[in-house]
Write a structure and sequence with these properties.
This protein has about 450 residues and is α/β, with parallel strands linked by helices. It has 4 helices and 35 strands. The protein has a 20-stranded mixed beta sheet that branches.
């Protein structure tokens, strides 16, 4: 009888101080979507604090000015957690998206103060969309205020997933924490007039192709006029090996890097596939980069962009080399913080640190080293103690794995104590052998920026 009362209240509109519970689990996806479909413009779907929602299909905005948020707008672990939990078929199709805001009537919808876990634990790799899909023929979306998003998909070849995909006019993406995306952390499909700021993007155990992507020609014919990417923090992989005195670099056992912190222009991503298409008229200012990348900002096939005052923070490494998926015509440039291809760009306003390259096509084909002490030691939001694999921090994925992480952490300490002396003796010799065997590897090292 109690469940019937809840459903009746949902059908006639919920009171402002109500939230829709995560239980019963087998009806939660249908209940939440029914509220969005039936409640009309301006409706706020309030999720309950500290509850986990195992959804089996996307939550789909259905009208203008709707909002999905946690009741009371908490900013910590009390935020509701949406877990992407639908089935994945043998052919790789299935559930990958948590929130969908692409309907024609869905202008000015808002997602705020929630956590999203798109790791799909135990599911096979899938082809699908971002954890959050916003766009289409609508505008004025807001994805903001302490959303935690990720992990997102797999870094297996062509099994990637975005954190946030935005393809609508005059929208805002701000104050989000995006961890473990594998395709793009934030992907802007033109989105003229959209502001992207104060977001933090980082990787732990997967490689991310691009932190923020401004590479897609459709649906706005490459128009990024009024689109500004500012004051974001993008953190590549950090060393997960034991830090030893006076050393700044170590190994990352997952080989995690971000290939491009910010990618600008179709050719960075697609090579010659789309001919002379360009991205134009965007602004990329005052962003900061730390950890391991191949390139912090890469610019090709772009017109009239302004790119200034972007900086490196803490320890950074720029590592990578030509991979097996590079075409015969691809000649990836040496890893570096800021690169631009003058042959395919024009009218740019660039900070002085940019270096010119001869070929900026298809830069996602590079691969990080297969081991070796090339990753800087450093911190990210999941890694408050200096070891990203220790299970510390408050990311959504932590809730599902903290017990395993503690056990593995204890075992890792015991093993490290046994091996540390032997490892210290052989470390320098091993590193020298690795570099000499991989003479074709491009590797540049940059220390703390001033």
């Amino acid at each position: 009888m109690e469940d019937s009362i809840v459903l009746l209240e949902s059908s006639i509109g919920r009171r402002d101080n109500d939230c829709e519970p995560a239980e019963p689990v087998d009806t939660v996806t249908d209940r939440l979507n029914a509220l969005l479909q039936n409640s009309g413009p301006g409706y706020t779907l309030s999720l309950c604090p500290s509850q986990t929602y195992f959804i089996t299909a996307p939550l789909v905005f259905a009208a203008a000015n709707q909002e999905i948020s946690t009741l009371g707008y908490p900013t910590g672990d009390e935020r509701a957690l949406l877990v992407v939990n639908g089935t994945i078929a043998d052919d790789g199709t299935g559930h990958t998206t948590a929130v969908d805001g692409v309907c024609l009537a869905c202008s000015a919808v808002t997602l705020r103060n929630v956590q999203i876990d798109g790791a799909r634990r135990g599911a096979p790799p899938a082809n699908g969309g971002a954890n959050i899909e916003m766009g289409g023929e609508n505008s004025d979306h807001v994805v903001e205020f302490n959303n935690d998003i990720g992990p997102c998909g797999s870094d297996a070849f062509q099994e990637w997933a975005d954190g946030i995909s935005m393809s609508c006019l005059n929208s805002i993406v701000r104050n989000n924490m995006i961890q473990g995306a594998t395709d793009g952390g934030i992907v802007l499909f033109g989105s003229p007039g959209t502001q992207v700021y104060n977001n933090t993007i980082w990787v732990l155990n997967h490689t991310l192709l691009g932190g923020i992507n401004m590479v897609d020609y459709d649906p706005f014919s490459g128009d990024y006029a009024g689109t500004a990417v500012t004051n974001n923090t993008i953190l590549g992989g950090f060393a997960t090996s034991t830090e030893e005195p006076n050393e700044t670099d170590g190994n990352n056992f997952a080989g995690a890097v971000i290939k491009m912190g910010i990618a600008i222009g179709p050719r960075t991503w697609f090579g010659e596939k789309f001919g002379d298409n360009v991205s134009y008229s965007g602004v990329v200012n005052n962003n900061q980069f730390g950890g391991a990348f191949t390139y912090a900002i890469a610019v090709t096939s772009a017109l009239n962009f302004t790119i200034e005052n972007n900086v490196l923070i803490g320890n950074t490494s720029f590592i990578g080399a030509r991979g097996p998926n590079c075409s015969d015509s691809d000649s990836p440039p040496s890893p570096a913080p800021f690169i631009v291809d003058p042959n395919t760009t024009n009218g740019l306003t660039l900070q002085s640190e940019f270096q010119t390259i001869g070929d900026g096509d298809d830069l996602t084909c590079v691969l990080p080293p297969n081991g070796g002490d090339f990753w800087p030691f450093g911190l990210n939001p999941s890694n408050s103690t200096g070891n990203p694999t220790s299970g510390s921090g408050t990311s959504p994925g932590k809730k599902a794995g903290i017990s395993i992480g503690v056990i593995l952490g204890v075992l890792a300490i015991a093993i490290a104590i046994w091996f540390i002396r032997k490892r210290a003796v052989g470390r320098a010799e091993s590193k020298t052998r690795y570099v000499s065997k991989s003479s074709d590897y491009y590797m540049q090292r940059y220390g703390p920026s001033s």
